[in-house]
Write the structure tokens for this entry.
Amino acid sequence: MNERRALGFGLSAVLLWSTVATAFKLTLAEFTPIQMLTIASIVSAVILIVICGVQGKLNSLPTVFLSNPWYYLLLGLINPLAYYIILFKAYDLLPASQAQAINYSWAITLTLMASFFLGQKIRKQDWVACILSYFGVVVIATKGDVLGLNFESPLGVGLALLSTLLWAGYWILNAKNKADPVIGVLLGFLVAIPFAVAISIWEGANWSQISPSGWLAVTYVGLFEMGVTFVLWLS
């Protein structure tokens, strides 16, 4: 029963994550990557605060943070700050279909890193699956010109691949966290938001030209790429 519920939560998270590529491109038509990160992180933090409040966990927030502040600072700087700035920039440079396919290879990266850092064994068939999956990523990234390795945006491809390392690294670090996982994710957003706001101010972000559809798109990203979906994944 527990395994069936776990698969249900995991598949629900993946289903929601599969919808956000379009929302990313719609949002990036009006927001810079750092603007998008700032607002989406605020939306995510609000929904996570509501979820933690309903679950009766908010009182433990200061205690959990103060028990290991440098650890939560590191987690917040990795995800959402660095990870999403890099991911959003990759989506800015690549077609959504390419960026999402490359970014989704984080599952392979996580498998390999879990083997190295957590000692989890990889079976022979897993190695075959990893090789086939990465080959598929190359096919999509080169639009089928595998031998020519002609990427539409080498920088975009590099950033998308780097995002998989950050994402997998974040969850490897998070695996060692003994505190409530939803509280841990919320702390990451609360840590990252001041940095995101500061960077957007330094960048000279212009907020006056954003349309209502742009605000709706970034809200969708905050809810279903980050907040709600993180809770499903952690569950």
User: Anything to note?
Assistant: The mean pLDDT is 89. Residues 20 and 225 are 6 Å apart (CA to CA). The chain is about 80% helix and 0% strand. The longest helix spans residues 69-93.
